[in-house]
Amino acid sequence: MMEKNALSARPTPSQIKNSRLRSGHAEVRPTWSHAVWGGLLGLCLTLLIWAPAQWMAWAVSKVSQGQVQWLNPRGTLWSGSAQMVLSGGAGSLQPQGLPGRLQWTLFPNGAGLRLGLMADCCMRERIDLDLQLGIATFKVQSTDHVSQWPAALLTGLGAPWNTLKPEGQLQLRTEALQLQWVQGRMQMRGLAELQIKNISSALSTTKPIGSYQVALRAPPEDTALPKLTLTTLQGPLLLSGNGQWVGSRLRFTGEASAEEGHERSLNNLLNILGRRQGSRSLLTLG
Q: Are residues 168 and 262 located together in one domain of the fold?
């Protein structure tokens, strides 16, 4: 009998609910909107984590205006590989691909992203690029790096490279390199150097025509405006010149000439390189 009275003394579910309402604690039940928003958030996170490698290939093509293309991408946005191809842009007839595949990694780094690149054909170690995007600014900082690239890759960029058909090796070196675009104006710290070694051209019977160095640097006394110099290391084709970035454009002036005894074999090449002035070709850009 006592057990029956104890059971009847227990509050029913409706009594518990009414008690909570009287005490000011309203019962909160999950709604369909909560479930929908939770599902959408989970879907967005899943898409971001497993974003396809095609997204990276699209971004590279967009930024380079179609001159650098990553074809047949595999993997995800954060870790993948592709075949790198240089092209003259839309409608280019002679794109030139890099031997093998290019691997990349992408992950958050502070307030930006870190992009790691590795090409087995041409690089001994990975290069890391720290990317930061701000209001009207974009900054790229590179780790120190040395790599070797086939000069024939330049043929894919179109004129004048598809006419010159260069053969040889390109050695790229960076040192404390930092590039920054502020409202379309490029500023620079550090050094980017390209050595063009034992280059030859389909327009000359002289092989090789020489070795050259192109250096892009910001002098300590300058206000971070990049300066470019072209010098001849060796060879019968003599190249020299200087340039500077003004705003977003490079302005360059230089000249090309042939060593004594090589004028005839280099004549066609000199005609292509620039405007002839006697035995010299004047080089201008921008």
A: yes
Query: What pLDDT was estimated at residue 6?
Result: 45
Out of 101, 134, 167, a domain closes at 134
Tens of pLDDT, residue by residue over 234-244, are 999 999 999 98
Measure the CA–CA gap between 217 and 4, rounded to whole angstroms. Answer: 94
Q: Are strands 102-109 and 167-182 parallel, antiparallel or unpaired?
A: unpaired
Q: Which domain, by its residues, includes 248?
A: 142-286
Q: Which residues pair with 171 in a beta bridge?
A: 148, 195
pLDDT in tens, 176-185: 999 888 877 8
Q: What is the pLDDT of residues 119-133, one digit of tens each?
A: 989 999 999 999 998
